[in-house]
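Changelog excerpt

This revision adds worked examples to the README so contributors can see how folded entries look when concatenated. The first example is reproduced verbatim below.
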Amino acid sequence: MGIYGNSGHAFKGQPGGQPLYYDLPRLVRSCCAVTAACMLISRAKFFEAGAFDEVNLAVAFQDVDLCLKLLENGYRNVYTPFALLYHHESVTKSEKIPNPVEDAYMKKRWAKYIADDPYYNPNLGRRTEDFRIALD
C-alpha cells in the first residue's frame, strides 16, 4: 500500500528467482493485499467482508479493497512463493490508467493503510515497486 499514492505490485517486472530485497519474493509472508488474479479465499469470508465493491470500484482496486476489508475483519492476507503464476496486468482492459474517481475513493476509504502499510518498511520508496530505499 502507498505505492504511487495508492497501491502497487511488489517486485513487478523484476526477474524471477533473483535474491531481491532480503529474498522477500521467496518468503511466505503477510501483506495488506494480493491481486485477485491469484487469490484464494473461502466463499464465507468473501461474503463476510462484503465481496467486491462493484459500485465504487467498477474497474480497478476491487481486490485491494476486499483484502483491506478482510484485514479490518481480523484476517490476514498471506502471500506464498510456492505458486508460480503469470499475471498479465490489465491485458484485457482498455483502461490502463486508474479511473480518477476510483483512485480518489481508495485514497479516502483506505487512507490509513496508504499512509502507513504495516507490512511495508517506511524507509522504502513509494514511487517504484522494487522495494528501493527512499532517497528523497
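The second example, added in the same revision:
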Amino acid sequence: MTKLLTDLTAQQKDYAIFLPAISSFYVMHVSKQRFDNFIDPARIPRHFVNGLESVNWLAPEGMFKYKFSLYSAGHANIDMNKNVESEDMIRNRNRNTSFVIGDSGGFQIAKGIWKADWKDPTCPKASSKRKEVLTWLDANFDYGIILDIPAWVRHNKKVHKDIGVSTYEEAVIATEINNEYFIRNRNGDCKYLNVMHGEHHADADDWYERMKKYCDPKQYSTHFDGWAMGGQNMCDIHIILKRLVTMMRDGLLEEGVHDWMHFLGTSKIEWAVLLTDIQRAVRKHYNKNFTISYDAASPFLSTINANVYYELDMQNRKKWLYRSGTGMDDTSLSNDTTPYGQAFINHWNEKKF
C-alpha cells in the first residue's frame, strides 16, 4: 500500500470546494498505464509503489486523497459505444472515494469547435452531439452541467455561421432546446446543474426568468438539481446575492432538491473566501446542505509549462495569488535523493534552472 501523505478531503470542513479541472493529458497517462507500460516503469519515481495510480487522487491507491474534481467533455473522448482505454481514470473511477462533476462542453460550442445549427432542434449534427453528451454525463458523473450556449458567443463573429447562433436571443433559444432534451431523456443516474448566463444585470435577470422552470419540481418531475453560474453571474457579487434571494423566494434552492451551485472557471483565492462565506450563510439560514464549488485548470496548465507553485502571497488589501516558477529539469538530478522541496530550494539558490 502507498503511504497516505495527506487526506485533503478531511481538511475540507465547511469551505467552498475547489474542483481541479482535470487535463485529458493527465487522465490519458494514468488510464493507459493500467493496460500497458505506456510510460517506462523506470521513469516512475520508486516511491510511487502503485505506479501512476499513486498520483491518482481519486483512487484509494493514491498517495494523497482529494475526492473532488471536474472533467470536461470538450477534452474527452465521450463516445460511450467504445471502450476507450485513455478515459479509464474517469470511466472506471471508484465512485465511493470520488465525486466528479462533468462539464458538458458548452464552451466548445461557443468557440466553434462543435459545429452545428444549435438553434435548430432538428439539426442532425446538433441532435447527435446532444445525445452523445447526455449519455456520457449520465454514465460517468455525480453531477453534470447542462449543455449551455454562453451568451457571450454573440461577440465571437468568427463562429456565428458555424454554430447557428449570433445573438443573445439565439443563445437562449439554443440552450432551451438542449435543456428540454436533457429534461426528457436523462436516465436519473446523474444530477444536473442549470446554467445561468448573461453579461449584465438585465440579461442575467432575463436568463434566470426563462430558465428557472427547469429546476421547478412543479413543472418538471425530472427537473434539474442545482445551479451553475456562468457569464457575469460568476464574478459579480451583486448579481450573485440577488440571484440567491430570488431562488429562495421562488422555492428553487431547497434542501435535498437544489443543494449544489457551481461557479464556472472561478479560481481566485479571494473568491474562495467569499464563496465560503456565502455557503456558510445559506447553510445557516436556509439550506443546511447547500454546497458551492468552483474550478480551474491552472494546476495542469502550470505543469504543462514545466512550472511549480512555490509561494502563497496573501498581503492585506492586495491581490492574493500563488506564485509559480520554472521547475527543475536537469539530467544531473536523476540520482539525487534529496526531498523535492529541499532540492528545489538548493537548485533555485544555485540558479541551475
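Reviewer comment on example two: The domain at 6-299 is CATH 3.20.20 (TIM Barrel). The longest strand covers residues 307-313.
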